[in-house]
Amino acid sequence: MSTFDQPLSGTYNEQIEALIQAKGISLTESTRIAFSTLMANKLRSLLTALGVIIGVAAVVALLAIGKGAQEEITESITINGANLLTVRSGSLSSGGFGSEGGKSRSLIMNDVEALSDAGRNPAITKVSPEYSSFASIIAGAANTSSMVSGVTPVYQEVRNAQIHQGEFISETHVRSSMNVAVLGSRVATTLFGTADPVGQSIRIDGLSFRVIGVLKLKGGSSFGSLDDAVLVPLTAAQTKLFGARDSVTGKHALSSITVQAFDEKSISQAAQQIALTLREEHGLPPEGGADDFSIDNQQDLINTLTESRRTMTIYLGAIATISLIVGGIGIMNIMLVSVRERTREIGLRKAIGARERDILTQFLIEALTLSTCGGLIGLLLGVLVAVVANETGQSRASLSASSMVLAVGFAMAIGLFFGIEPARRAARLDPIEALRSD
User: Fold this and answer.
1) Alpha-carbon span 131 to 89, nearest angstrom
2) What is the torsion angle, in degrees rounded to the nearest 10, for the CA atoms of residue 349, residue 352, residue 357 and residue 361?
3) How confident is the model over 384-393, as a mean pLDDT?
4) Residue 121 CB neighbours (<10 A)
5) pTM above 0.70, yes or no
6) Please, are residues 168 and 215 in contact by the beta-carbon 8 Å criterion?
C-alpha cells in the first residue's frame, strides 16, 4: 500500500506535510536521476571529470612508485643485515673527511684489533677490515669497471656473502697476499658470460689475479650490492693494488671497518663503544673535541631516506591535489550550467511538492556521482601505470590499499565540496520564477 493510499491522520498541516513528504524525491530516485543525467551527456561528463581522473591517477601512480623505490633502497641497505655499523676515517663534524690539515688519522689494523677486544666492546660480535677502490677489470676481450675490496675471511660472515662456485678468501690467501679474487655474480656474467670463471685469470688495474670463487646472486639495486663487487685478500689490495698508508703511523691504511653488533637493539651501545675505543687508540680525550672518524648506522641511513621519500611524497601529493581542485572547479562550473539548463525542471519538481532539501540532495548526488566515477577511472589508470612500471622494469611500484582509498575518498570529497554551491542555487530557486523561465 502506497503512502497516498494510507488514511491520513492528525491536524490539517500535518496531513499536508505528510503528502509533501510522500511526494519528495527519495535517495534512490535522486541517484537514478543523477546517473540518467550524466549518461545523457557522456562526453560532457567525461570532460568534466577529466581533472579528477588525472589527479587520482597521478596520486595512485606516484605514491606506488615512491613506495616501491623506498622498499628497493631499504632492501639494498638491509640485505646484509640491519645491525651493521661502518667506521670511516675523518669526521664530518670537523669539516669533512680527513680534515684539519691532514691531522686526521687513517684507520689501521691496530684499530681492528682494539675493536675486536670483547672485554672493551661487549656489544660487538664481528669486525671486518676493508680497503676498497674502483678499478678496471679485464678478462680476455671483456672488461668492466667495478669496486674492488680487499677483505679478510670474516667479511663473508659479516656481509652474509654466500659462495655459488669455488671458495671464499681464506686466512692463507690473506697471510700470503695471494693474487686471488672472488667475483660478484653480475661481474662474473659480464666478464665470462655463461662460462665457468673459477680457475680463469683476470687483470685488475693491470695486475693478474686468479678467480677462486663466485658469489650467489643477492639481488637488489647496485647500492652497495655484492653482485657488482670484486673481492681480493686485504693484504693484496693494500700492498699490490692500492698501497695507501696512514700519514701518522706509516702503516697500511683501511678505507673502512664494518662492525656487526649483537642485534639491532645493541647498535647504539656498539656505536658508543666504538667511539670510546677509537678515541683512546687515536690519542683523543674521552670527552670533548671532534672525532677523527665517523660511524655510519644503517638504520640512520634508512631513516634519512625514508624522511626524504616522505618529503618528496608531500610535494608530489600537493601537485596532484592541485589537479584534483582544478577538477572540482570544473565540476562546479558544469553543475552551475546544468542548474541553468534545468531551471524549468526544478520549478516543476518544486511545484508538485519537492522540498529544497530534495533538490539540494539531487544535485549533490549528481556532483558526487561525477567525482566518484572520475575517481574510479583515475584509480584504474593509476594501477595500470604501476603495473606497466613493474612489467617493464623501468621502476618498482608498490600499490597501497590505503593510498588508493585515500585518493578516491579525496576525489569524492572534492566533488561534494564543489557541488554545494550549484545545489544550493538550485534548491533556492523560486518555483514560479523557475516555471516562467525559457
Assistant:
1) 12
2) -40
3) 85
4) 21
5) no
6) no
φ, ψ at 248 (rounded to 5°) = -90, -50
Q: Are 150 and 133 in contact (CB under 8 A)?
A: no
C-alpha–C-alpha distance, residues 69 and 75, integer Å = 10
Q: What is the pLDDT of residues 158-196, one digit of tens each?
A: 888 889 999 999 999 999 999 999 999 999 999 998 899
- Are 176 and 234 a contacting pair, CB within 8 Å? no
Between the CA of residue 45 and those of 37, 42, 49, 312, what are the distances in Å?
A: 9, 5, 6, 33
Length, in residues, of the chain: 438
> Among 81, 212, 187, which residue's Cα sits nearest to residue 134?
187
Q: Which residues contact 418 (CB under 8 A, 6 or more apart)?
A: 328, 329, 331, 332, 335, 367
Cα 244 to Cα 128: distance, rounded to the nearest angstrom: 18
Q: Which three cell numbers stand for residue 254?
A: 683501511
Cross-strand partners of 201 = 210
In 3D, which of 1, 57, 20, 55 has the Cα closest to residue 331?
Answer: 55
Mean pLDDT value of segment 8-14:
47
Contact between 146 and 229 under an 8 Å Cβ cutoff? The reply is: yes
**Are the C-beta atoms of 78 and 282 separated by less than 8 Å?**
no
* C-alpha span between 121 and 261 (Å, rounded): 10
Q: What residues form DSSP beta bridges with 294?
A: 88
Distances (CA, A) of 205 to 133, 139, 169, 209, 225: 11, 12, 20, 10, 21
Q: What is the pLDDT of residues 115-162, one digit of tens each?
A: 999 888 899 999 999 999 999 999 988 888 889 999 999 999 888 888
Average pLDDT, the chain: 81
> What was the pLDDT predicted at 175?
92
DSSP secondary structure of 18-34? HHHHHHSPPHHHHHHHH
